[in-house]
Design brief:
201 residues; alpha+beta; hypothetical protein PF0899 fold; 76% helix; four-stranded mixed β-sheet
Amino acid sequence: MDKLQELTDKLYQEGLSKGKAEGEALLAQAKTEAEAIVKKARQEAEAILATAQKQADDLRTKAEGDTKMAALQALQATRQDLENLVVTRIADTQVKEAMSAPEFIKGIITAVAQRFSAEQSQDLSLVLPASLQSALEPFVKKELGTLLGKEVDARFSKKIAGGFTIGPKDGSYFISLTDETFADLVKEYLRPATRKLLFGE
């Protein structure tokens, strides 16, 4: 009986030791697997966080770049508007006054017509502002024709506020020196000086 009891106790102890060892091995394996899972989850979380941070940095950089670009474009547009305002005010006012002054118009017509006379033998055609007809018609019919030694055909139009157009009488081409075209020419000369005055460039 004692032998049986002893054998039973021995088997029980061996089973208990074996079960305990297997349990400890399973527990160690589960712990290792849990640590690996936690480590992998932590790495994935860090990767997600790093990606999110990079996307946020990229978005901030792009937003800052877009904001700077928009601000620069707004500044350039404002400077251009200011430059145009100053140049237009100066040029339009001065040119309109000059191109409506009969004596000034006479001087330009004479210089241009003499150039035509020297280079071509065609009769000339002029279109002048209707508002200056009384002041310019005698000049064109008498003085200019005599000066050039050829016929000058003059028409007066309400479509021209100031200045004139001139060209061969056959209409093959003409040169426009109206207040608008002259103002555009003057503006191109004024722009660099105005830009330097306003912005120091």
